[in-house]
TrEMBL record:
Protein name stated in the entry: Uncharacterized protein
Lineage: Bacteria, Pseudomonadati, Pseudomonadota, Gammaproteobacteria, Pseudomonadales
Record-linked InterPro entries: Porin_dom_sf
Annotated signal sequence range: 1-18
Originating species: Pseudomonas mandelii JR-1
Protein keywords: Plasmid, Signal
Length: 66
């Protein structure tokens, strides 16, 4: 055999064995309850709507006009 054919066969053998290793390390599928998860994202926002200077506002009563 020449070196190119030997290289080709070794690459084929390597790819087949690598595929078998990944199949062996693959996890078993989990059931509905075992495989479930929950992620909670909580974002608090504060809007400064302090209108204590009532006479300085356009409405004159200390409230914002919406």
């Amino acid at each position: 055999m020449n070196s190119e054919a030997l290289l080709g066969l070794s690459l084929i053998a390597l790819s087949v064995s690598a595929g078998q290793v990944t199949m062996a390390t693959e996890e078993k599928p989990k059931g509905f309850v075992e495989g479930c998860g929950l992620t909670i994202l909580n974002r608090n926002l504060y809007f400064n709507r302090d209108f204590r200077k009532g006479q300085a506002s356009r409405t004159g009563n200390g409230y914002s006009e919406e």
